[in-house]
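Side project, low priority. Logging it here so it doesn't get lost.
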Amino acid sequence: MHTRTHRSIIVAALVPFLVASACDDEVARLTSPVEWYEVTTPVGVLDVAVVPPTEPGTTSHPVLLALPWGSGDADLTESFVRSYWAEAPSARGYYVVAPAVYGPRLEDDADQILPALFDWVESTLGADAQTVALVGASNGGRGAFFAALADPARFDAMLVLPGVYAGEAATLAPLADIPIRMIVGEFDTTWVDATLATRDALESVGIMPTVDIADAQGHVMNLLGSELVHWIDEVIGR
């Protein structure tokens, strides 16, 4: 198993977040390339959005696996990518890989989807599928827990914004080696409660996640992608 740097912090108070300049953010969303592929898995063909690194092929590139919000259709997948992951990960050398998948579906299908997807990532993109950060929002945040539990040795960091887990706390124990960060908007009260319950479940099995309650934010948060990627870089030792 590859070495992980595990940082465990709990933020109990409301915390402010830097937000991107509206003008710069809009330019990034319009100009960043999102390439679409079809990937065959044992449970069907998945549409997969990819944002390549700024200089593909020049070094070994880690992967940022992004699980979309809502129903996970292609439009929502691309909107999730463009909201946070269209610029900063590419500039930092990541391949962003975002399957158009309904997050809760992964409770049943992650063990079949993930091996096929990562085989494709290695064979077609030439990315480093042994260095992977897992991110998701809303239903994608739920799906992130299922994905991580299906293959915990695969992931070097996990970031959900927001994301929760409703299963038995004991089933979370395999995630002990993954640095986990959960971000939820202050005004998203139902998800705040569920996030804190998930934190408590993780703590009950000895896992200490970072939990941030984003000041003056709702369910879909305006967060700075570079700050999110900075945290990922830090915990995986890049």
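Brief comment: The helical segments are 22-31, 74-85, 88-91, 106-125, 139-150, 189-204, 225-236.
Revisit when time allows.
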